[in-house]
Design goal:
Elements lengths: L5 H13 L5 H4 L17 E8 L5 E8 L3 E8 L8 E8 L6 E7 L6 E10 L10 E6 L10 E6 L18 H7 L4 E4 L13 E3 L5 E3 L13 H11 L3 H9 L2 E3 L26 H15 L10 E4 L4 E5 L24 H13 L4 E5 L30 H13 L5 E5 L5 E6 L12 E5 L19 E7 L14 E7 L6 E7 L4 E7 L5
Parallel strand pairs: 8-9, 9-12, 14-15, 15-16, 16-18
Antiparallel strand pairs: 1-2, 2-5, 3-4, 3-6, 6-7, 8-20, 10-11, 13-14, 17-18, 17-19, 20-21, 21-22
Length: 518
């Protein structure tokens, strides 16, 4: 893969920002129209290449250019691209921040494929960029019993801890790449749009953490340009860029893609913001997310992805329909985090799934208490170990429905709380009895301040089987306590093995779960 030139990236980011038209719901506060300056020479791909949502016969491929151009993608079984199939993609222009995504279709199932991306100038036909290459692995066909491995984490560049070359950058992504996963699940907080960076931070041992800082990362994001700049910033890191070029992603969004602990309709009281209507900020953030992350653009973030007969992944959106953060003790079962349509979809798709394992990717944990200041709750639980109340009612409905339908093999994976843990839920310990025991695995942060552990709510009978948390709040990545999880499923036996790993990839805890008996 061609190495990225940082000055080119920063210049291209500023040019793209200047091309955004101000005014309106999405563009408010953005810079005026682009100046007459036009880059010379060949187009440049400024932020690498990525792939996402790889199925048995399709995958998304993403890139960004430094000027308007036509995206061209080749895909092949061979690294030399002999006999490659070429796909003509969209025009990359200022309206989309010069980003573009192509869906490759008709791909062979269960194979590691090579792709190559160029952009052709709109001014001079035949003038194309230097190519960038990547790899992706397609999912197995629905009835195939294939091995499958994925990694997950969340929480990237948060709490003031940005890219610090002196401390190895975001090296956790090199450790994740070394596991050779079939895909990567980001459990939310892809960026910290509400987390400005300073150039230096003093560490407890006297060392100095020196951040790379861009204009968009020097304040809270409010404009479309500033939200776009959050994603551009993370891609300055060579570890992350190389990882994303080689491993297809499955992405969720959570709160920090917009602002901390947000919910629809919220009006901020944070003096750092001049735009305090969260719905306006969320619209801008959602557009930037769709432009910079290779994710489906059908407007719906929750979805089911199948990986052969052994694994279905159910990606939740626990933010778009979130109710206000209050005491979370209400009795209305129609409120919650998922909304009626998504809740019914989840029950229906879990019931239809024939996969051995049904992994639910939740961007908020089920049993951990996540406060939002005094008297308000951010997550599902509120600390009362009694009968379900508030948002717990919604998950009690889901767990009860799939239990009565005979669904087995449900496992939750999440991040959010900035430490790693393994929780086992059992009705024998719970205030409710009509659900099938399940595991919840927590892992993060990828590159942010480490916190925890949080209190467990006893409503669904959780037991903390393993916890690895820092000695104090906001421990820096330089001190460890950065985590990712790895799940591998044996295609022949159906056994599922979980590793909770540290920043270097060392396994801190592991457990193999036998395939459930139907």
């Amino acid at each position: 893969m061609t190495e990225l030139d940082r000055r080119t990236v920063l210049r291209a980011g500023l040019v793209a920002g200047a091309g955004v038209v101000g005014g309106g719901l999405l563009g408010g506060g953005a810079a005026p129209a682009a100046p007459a300056w036009r880059p010379s020479g060949r187009p440049v791909l400024t932020h690498g290449v990525q792939s996402g949502d790889a199925t048995a016969d399709s995958a998304l491929v993403w890139t960004r250019a430094d000027r308007p151009g036509r995206m061209l993608v080749e895909v092949s079984r061979r690294p030399d691209f002999r006999g490659a199939r070429r796909v003509t993609g969209p025009v990359l222009d200022p309206s989309g921040d010069f980003t573009g995504t192509v869906r490759l279709r008709g791909l062979p199932a269960g194979e590691r494929l090579h792709y190559r991306v160029r952009v052709e100038s709109l001014d001079r036909h035949g003038l194309v960029s230097e190519p960038l290459t990547g790899t992706l692995t397609t999912a197995a066909r629905p009835h195939d019993r294939r091995d499958v491995r994925f990694v997950w984490t969340g929480d990237i560049a948060g709490q003031g801890w940005g890219i610090a070359p002196d401390f190895g950058g975001m090296s956790i992504f090199s450790a994740m790449r070394a596991t050779r996963p079939d895909f990567y699940l980001c459990s939310g907080d892809n960026v910290y749009a509400d987390g400005p960076l300073t150039e230096t931070v003093a560490l407890p041992d006297g060392r100095i953490w020196r951040n790379i800082v861009t204009p968009e990362k020097s304040k809270v994001a409010e404009t479309l340009t500033e939200y776009r700049g959050q994603y551009a910033y993370n891609l300055l890191d060579e570890h992350l860029r190389r990882f994303l070029a080689e491993v297809p992603q499955v992405n969720q969004w959570d709160d920090h893609e917009v602002t901390n602990n947000w919910y629809p309709g919220e009006i901020l009281t944070d003096d750092r913001y001049t735009e305090r209507r969260v719905d306006v900020l969320a619209a801008r953030a959602r557009r930037a997310y769709g432009e910079w992350v290779p994710t489906p653009r059908d407007g719906r973030l929750y979805r089911r992805l199948s990986y052969g007969s052994r694994l279905d992944v159910f990606v939740l959106d626990m933010r778009t329909w979130k109710d206000p953060n209050d005491g979370n003790t209400y009795a209305d079962p129609n409120r919650g985090l998922l909304g009626r349509e998504q809740r019914e979809w989840l029950v229906r798709e879990l019931t239809r799934s024939r996969a051995t394992w049904k992994v639910i990717a939740a961007d908020l944990p089920i049993g951990l208490v996540v406060p939002d200041g005094p008297g308000a709750q951010e997550g599902v639980a509120q600390g009362d170990p009694g009968a379900p109340a508030g948002r717990e009612l919604e998950f009690a409905q889901v767990l009860r429905a799939v239990h009565r339908a005979g669904v087995t093999g449900v496992v939750f994976v999440t991040a959010d709380v900035h430490y790693t843990a393994a929780h086992h839920y059992d009705p024998a310990r719970a205030a409710v009895g009509d659900f099938t025991p399940f595991w919840e695995f927590v892992s993060g942060p990828a590159h942010a301040g480490a916190f925890g552990p949080n209190a467990l709510d006893g409503t669904f009978g959780p037991e903390a089987v393993f916890v690895h948390a820092p000695p104090r709040a906001n421990t820096s990545p330089a001190e460890g306590y950065q985590h990712f999880g790895e799940v591998s499923i044996d295609g022949a036996t159906g056994a599922l093995t979980v590793h909770l790993r540290d920043r270097a990839g060392v396994s801190l805890w592991t457990r193999t779960l036998p395939p459930p008996v139907r």
